[in-house]
Amino acid sequence: MYKKTIILMITAAIIFASFSAVSAAELQSVNYLISGDSSEIDTLQLEPIFRLNGGQQGKLNLAFDGDGFHIGADMGLNMIAQKEFRMDLHLMLTDEVDSQSFGKSVGISAATLNSDLNFFWQTYYFIDDDLDDHAYYRGGARYNIGPRSDFELSIGNQYWDLDNRVLNIGISYKM
To answer: How high is the pLDDT of residue 132?
Structure first.
């Protein structure tokens, strides 16, 4: 666990250093999420989202579930970009997936792009053979509560524990 976390952190640091050196990434927004079921909070998450040159998105997910920290890195390739709709193809690497080290997944996401209320979903498939469940997903709505902030309410699971179904409540702050 210690070795894979160090390798993933070094990889993330190299990626961010290369982006900042050539000004290829711009911090677009940061999501702050609280996840849990109806009776308790399971996880605190921080998700910085970056816009890369060409309009592609990169995202980190930094999570603390009470027992340990988890990190996921995601790169999106835009497939459809319209005025009120966006769909992306994703590649995601994680430090852990269902108690196994170093998860690798492909996914797809879609979001509406309106001024007040937006709906979104994302689905990933982990290609690791030893998993019983391969799907990671999250979907819900974001409601604009200010000129630079949105309220999020969504349901899904967690990439490090694919069996754990959670409700996510959070704030997204646009830079």
So the answer is: 80
Give me the sign of the Cα torsion angle 97, 45, 112, 153.
positive
The structure tokens 């319209």 sit at: 82
Residue 45's contacts (CB-CB under 8 Å, 6 or more residues apart) are 31, 32, 33, 34, 35, 61, 62, 63, 64, 168, 170
Q: Does domain 2-174 have CATH number 1.20.1560.10?
A: no
What is each CA distance from 14 to 10, 52, 173, in whole angstroms?
6, 15, 25
Task: Read off the pLDDT of residues 60-88 as tens digits, 9 standing for 90 and up.
Answer: 999 998 888 999 999 998 899 899 999 99
Domain ranges (residues) in the chain: 2-174
pLDDT, tens digit, 9 for 90 and up, residues 114-147: 989 999 999 999 988 787 888 999 999 999 999 9
Give the number of other CB atoms < 10 A from CB of residue 48.
Answer: 17
